[in-house]
Amino acid sequence: MNQEISPIIFIIIGITCVVSISAFSNRNLMVQLMHTPYDVKRHKQWYRLLTSGFLHADWMHLFFNMFVFYNFAPLVFDRYHLLFDEKGMFYFLILYLGAIIISNLPSFVKHQNNPSYSSLGASGGVSAVLFAFIFLYPDAKLQMVFIPVPLPGIIWGIGYLMYSYYMGKRGG
Question: What CA–CA distance (Å, rounded) separates 122 from 103?
């Protein structure tokens, strides 16, 4: 397995951090990029299905998503590169960015007539990368800083989904 992390991983993390941190202090930017199904439908602002994936509600939300992405994306990227050669980066970007868009579709359908609903975060893309890792490395056991025992990838995946669900409900 390649020990070097692809620059695309750092580019995604960098863009996400710059956009999120900029939006923390610029409410106008946050509102312009959030996934607001009502605006997507009424004003044809389809870009929001993607741009909302580069926004986060706060520092903890940003850190947690980028921490999970940083830990799993290099392994998925390396496997994609092995499987698809020069098209590996393209397929990896399709996985990540496509999952952000697709994960926003259910809330679009449900809330397209609700002008007060909005959402943000990279959880759809991060979940896709995490579950691609679990699919590609089904027997892998991982140890993270905050839990000293190696756990199967599927446990990390379920934990991440539970965290994402909880944070989504908490944020209203």
Answer: 9
For residues 93 and 168, the model is more confident at 93
| pTM of structure | 0.87
CA angle 116, 158, 7 (to 5 degrees): 80
AA identity, residue 90: F
Structure tokens at 120: 């943000």
Tokens 């995490």 correspond to 130
Burial class (CB in 10 A: 0-12, 13-18, 19+), 146: exposed
Instruction: Give the integer Cα–Cα distance in Å for 11 and 153.
Output: 25
Task: Give the separation between CA 118 and CA 51, rounded to whole angstroms.
Answer: 12
Q: How far is the C-alpha of 146 from the C-alpha of 171, rounded, in Å?
A: 24
Name the region of 24 (left: φ>0; alpha: ψ -120 to 50; beta: rest).
Answer: alpha
Burial class from Cβ neighbours inside 10 Å (0-12, 13-18, 19+) for residue 169 reads exposed
pLDDT of residue 58: 93
